[in-house]
């Protein structure tokens, strides 16, 4: 299994148009196309695809200070948001592998960044487990989001 992270390019759009998420996933995260629309109007958002053998298996956005400031005072942080693994690719270790590649990817593409943060709904215990396993820590901060309380996780780079 070959997993890679790559910045979004237009050639991936057809796959994102057919990207399926479960009802549970849709409750907690936005679809890649919705997230991509925001990336087009905010230059500080960087869409990333998770590729399995060259096919889009997942998606997330790396968001600079405009996204970070709601969750942290650290201007050296970057926010990971809108993370998902397409429903048909779940249970194959892609989430774990993409998390292992995340830190080297950020260090290479955003060398000035010293921390990655993310926000997880308090009810989304599956995501909390994945992020803990990937070395993220609950930093104790809580923020109210549109669908309830969010736990802020962070990991130093």
Automatic annotation (TrEMBL):
Keyword Transferase carried by entry: yes
Matches recorded under SUPFAM superfamilies: Acyl-CoA N-acyltransferases (Nat)
UniProt domain N-acetyltransferase: residue ranges: 3-157
Record bears the keyword Transferase: yes
Protein name: GNAT family N-acetyltransferase
Residues spanning the membrane: none
Example GO molecular function: acyltransferase activity, transferring groups other than amino-acyl groups
Keywords attached to this entry: Transferase
């Amino acid at each position: 299994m070959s997993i890679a992270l790559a910045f979004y390019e237009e050639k991936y759009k057809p796959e994102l148009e057919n990207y399926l998420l479960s009802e549970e996933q849709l409750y907690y995260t936005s679809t890649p196309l919705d997230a991509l629309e925001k990336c087009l109007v905010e230059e500080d958002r960087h869409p990333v695809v998770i590729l399995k053998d060259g096919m889009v298996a997942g998606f997330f956005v790396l968001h600079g200070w405009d996204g970070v400031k709601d969750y942290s005072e650290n201007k050296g942080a970057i926010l990971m948001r809108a993370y998902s693994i397409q429903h048909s690719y779940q249970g194959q270790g892609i989430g774990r592998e993409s998390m292992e590649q995340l830190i080297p990817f950020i260090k290479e593409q955003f060398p000035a960044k010293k921390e990655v943060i993310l926000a997880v709904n308090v009810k989304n215990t599956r995501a909390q487990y994945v992020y803990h396993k990937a070395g993220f820590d609950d930093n104790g901060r809580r923020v109210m989001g549109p669908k309830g309380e969010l736990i802020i996780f962070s990991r130093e780079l």
